[in-house]
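Quick sanity check, Cysteine protease:
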Amino acid sequence: LFPATLTYDTLRFEYEDFPETKEPVWILGQKYSVFTEKEEILSDVTSRLWFTYRKNFPAIGGTGPTSDTGWGCMLRCGQMIFAQALVCRHLGRDWRWMKGKRQMDNYFNVLNAFIDKKDSYYSIHQIAQMGVGEGKSIGQWYGPNTVAQVLKKLATFDTWSSLAVHIAMDNTVVMEEIRRLCQSHLLCAGAAASPALESEVLSNGCPEDVAGRERLVLWKPLVLLIPLRLGLTEINEAYIETLKHCFMMPQSLGVIGGKPNSAHYFIGYVGEELIYLDPHTTQPAVEPTDSGCLPDESFHCQHPPCRMSIAELDPSIAVGFFCNTEADFNDWCQQIKKLSMVRGALPMFELVEHQPSHFSNPDVLNLTPDSSDADRLERFFDSEDEDFEILSL
């Protein structure tokens, strides 16, 4: 099996179709057969938002670069994993994009959050400039951990999505921390006055008999990002089965990472190969039309996705999960616990109920838009995991 090849004289990719194999294809928690569901596989892949290098966008910071070619690949991968969280939040995992079909408003709201302009929540402009406060100059390469930390800070401004973003440090997921982050409390009287809100409470697993309680608990949708290092210079084979299982979970947002010289957004696997979307194509920046519509075809990868051997994966990655409800989170915890018992699968991270005593303050990164925690954030940015090289084109 050969991965996608690059012909340097034209800088155009030639993509292979999926291999004819009995092995199942897993894409972000969905299982497919190549023999009977090839169209469904390609539809699923095409429906993911695909962010690539762009050129001729407004200068970052007013005087900075107008293209991210050569340095923005991990920032684009961060956009892709976060866009998948917003798709799950506002459109649902089963939503599909079709060329030429009029999409709903929420789709364009999600897409507009990533457009290359300074006032989009998660634009290349916002990510690059937010990184300056964390010691990353504009145009400098990010590692998976840094882009995750920056996206967490940007998400606090996105009141439309109202996400709880948690980054699990030290290879440890603390359930107590996540529940505290995701659970917001409302007075009963206020909640009862809003039937829509009350139905949301009930759908989040609360008992119907709430009259005797002073407060109701609402669950904010969770984006969980776990930066990991799965080896020194190459991935430790003992983690491969566990990594595969992450793509099998319905809560999967995929993985950001790559191989030396380039970052990719991994959305699934087949056999011993990872399936990924590649940001290393430079496209012109997109401008809304006079009618306010956004030409969206270039944000969807309409050819078979790239594949690479899992063994080639750089060991520095970040794994993502989305839990829309508390029940989703409880289910995810159960799956992780079961995974720790799978023979031949070494756990990539630890799941614990309470914060270990040696941990730092868990609320350091629970930022609000007006907080200034750059000094405390610095120690979370492990420069050792940023040892990718800049791709020179």
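Posting the structure with no commentary besides this: Residues 25-184+215-356 form one domain.
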